[in-house]
Amino acid sequence: MSERDLRCLILGILDDGWDGLSAAGRAALAASRVVVGARRTLDLVAPHLAADVELRDMDGALGKTPEWVRAALADRLPVAVLATGDPLCHGIARFLIDRLGAENVDVLPAPSTIQLACARLKKPWQDAAIRSCHGADAGEWRDGATPEHGLYAIVRAVDEHARVAAFTSPANSPDRIARALLAAGYRDEIRISVAARLCLPDEEIVADLTLADAATREFPSPNIVVVDRLAAPAPRAVFGFDDGDFVQRQPEKGLITKLEARAVSLAKLALRADSVVWDIGAGSGSVGLEASRLAHFGHVWAIEKNAADAANARENARRLQATNYTLAEGRAPDGLDAWPDPDAVFIGGSGGELASLIGLCLERLRPGGRLVMNFVTIENLATATAALGMAGADWDVTMLSAARSQPILDMHRLAAQNPVWIVTARKSFPAAESKDE
Questions:
Q1: What residues form DSSP beta bridges with 424?
Q2: Fewer C-beta neighbours within 10 Å, C or N terminus of the chain?
Q3: Nearest to 289 by CA among 257, 249, 333
Q4: Over the stretch 342-381, which tens digit does the pLDDT of each residue have?
Q5: Judging by beta carbons within 10 Å of its beta carbon (0-12, 13-18, 19+), is residue 232 exposed, middle or buried?
Q6: Does residue 372 contact residue 422 with C-beta atoms inside 8 Å?
Q7: Is 27 left (phi over 0), alpha (psi -120 to 50) or beta?
Q8: Which domains does the chain have, with CATH numbers?
């Protein structure tokens, strides 16, 4: 290799070690003068390397790896970094490329352990969603878990895909994943397979366990999990649910935004698939839960002060398996400072804090975001428009009057619903980011 061509080699390796490397991989590794890797992978290759090769253990020192590589290249020493399987599939390659530059790196992968697991299980993986919880201890899954939870990506992927293959860790193990899916409302429609200690003499493959079975087992590490949904979920609308589909306070005095106003309000929110949404005064959760289905790659944070309504919203979330929905019981704005900045905010109830909530939401909205509010009283409408005017916001009002048919003898009449004012405010992009430029 010429001085001009000297680059860091990121080399994929499996637990069969030297024997499993290709001829090109062995030659490149043998030519290296500095080899960086986890202690486990260094031990696999050390007997096959020259005595003067410098071995660097990166266990607990991942952040130092780019520095070690730069130092080796500066000294004109061929350097290799060992990675399990395919370094570009939830591996170290992205980290190093971001810090060293693609022009200073070559990647020679081994088969991904996901690929090997699916081969052992005889399960095609071309349509599988690949996720990872190979990180810090995530703890057990809980209702309303946020995107920061280590199992969030896997639980959400199961909602979206018929097959999910996942890298695990000793703490975030197959049994914990099974318990998370049980907590999320999945049952016999899901099967879990585990491929453990791949390429080792004690390799273990367990196929198609029920969640209940997997949740109580212990599995050898390291391992890969494959989650299969046996049948497509029952057809269900993305949004447009009937009011009666939601659990709500009875008799009909519960806090639910009626279907007609809900549909217009959701349209006014202008949600993207990845939107971050706030639902303030959630009531039964109807708006926030339908928003969670539209923003299925995003997340909804909701708050409700009434304990009975909050309980109904939680039950509605459970029925819809809304695992991208977090409900807090309390009075806004308490706790909103811990929420991420939203792309869209819906205010269905304000608990007497309307003007201050409007100011807070306009301040926290991301550029291009929408604030949508529903009012049935003239006084709250006046408070809202005055607050928006004081803030210099771009806003408009739609008055929605709807009537539903009701039987009368052997015919039908129209019964009017209460008119609803739907107020929409928009947060503009900064001048430098204007879409017109």
A1: 372, 396
A2: C
A3: 257
A4: 999 999 987 788 999 999 999 999 999 999 999 999 999 9
A5: exposed
A6: yes
A7: alpha
A8: 7-111 (3.40.1010.10), 114-229 (3.30.950.10), 243-433 (3.40.50.150)
